[in-house]
Amino acid sequence: MMFLEYHNNVIEDILIGLFYRIRRPKLLDMKFNDFSGISYHLSTPDEGRLDQLRLSIHWECWAQLIQYGAMDVLEREYGPWITSPPEEGYDFTLEFNVDGLVRDNDPEKAIRNVALLRRNALSGAFERAFRAQAQAKEENDPKFDPNSIEFMRIDPHRDERMYIRHHRDYTTLIIGIALDDLDEADRLFVKFTFEELKHRSRLPHNYSNAPRVIHANLEPPPEICHLEEVVQDTSVIPPSLIATKERRDYIISQRMIFRDYMQYHIKDTKRFLKMRMRRRFSDRIKRLERTRKDYVLPNLPIRGFGEAK
């Protein structure tokens, strides 16, 4: 079982090693990707200043994130570290001094916050939906039109769609896997994964205060039935789960990590089934080879149909 984290472990490990002087290379230039296909570039912009670091990120859906309020969250979290314009070929860049990584007198908290760059960028859309939902509930307008609600769409990956929409009494998060980009085998794996999630959500030991989750692979919810062919996981988040800032941050992080686990589970299911098929095929071949070796067909009498023994 793989345990996924909210943050990027590569960024955190490197920054901890640099801050505590466990390792201080003369020049740092690392390019890597994470599970969501995001490209990172961690480097020292000036060879003479080993304590100055630059972290750049490239994400295909960055324009959508900016549209839904990601920059407000990034400015709140990183402030003076933001560099404009960003590094060439990337969407967003931070430049900071390694020795100055201190937040609330806690350097590891500041380092963890840098490693949460992806999470913070994606949380802007969630916070925007939560604020709109709270405002709609306070106004309690009897002429409230559900069709006027903002429908936020984010494409974190080539074959993945994420939809966030607020209502008067709850917020809906829909994570969909686009089927038009998948072959028939991948569709079966996706269907198998969603069926397992649907079964586990009905187990009696599940927490009663968790967000209500709906898994479907037949008819999509009304919000996305006109968009494209997808299988989706729908989470309904009531106001009671986002009453405080700590609860809101926790729900946002949990929904994001659930998306990672869902994608990982689909890929791991595909890997496991293929491994089983290869193993069974190999065992069948070994049996045939053992059967064929030094095997002499016995000379049995041939009897016609209906003949007495």
Automatic annotation (TrEMBL):
Pfam families (UniProt xref): P34-Arc (PF04045)
InterPro entries to which the protein is assigned, alphabetical: ARPC2, ARPC2/4
Cytoplasm listed as a keyword: yes
GO biological process: actin filament polymerization; Arp2/3 complex-mediated actin nucleation
Subcellular locations according to the entry: Cytoplasm, Cytoskeleton
Protein name: Arp2/3 complex 34 kDa subunit
Subunit structure: Component of the Arp2/3 complex.
GO molecular function: actin filament binding; structural constituent of cytoskeleton
Similarity annotation: Belongs to the ARPC2 family.
Record GO cellular component, one term: Arp2/3 protein complex
Keywords: Actin-binding, Cytoplasm, Cytoskeleton
Function of the protein: Functions as actin-binding component of the Arp2/3 complex which is involved in regulation of actin polymerization and together with an activating nucleation-promoting factor (NPF) mediates the formation of branched actin networks.
Source domain of life: Eukaryota
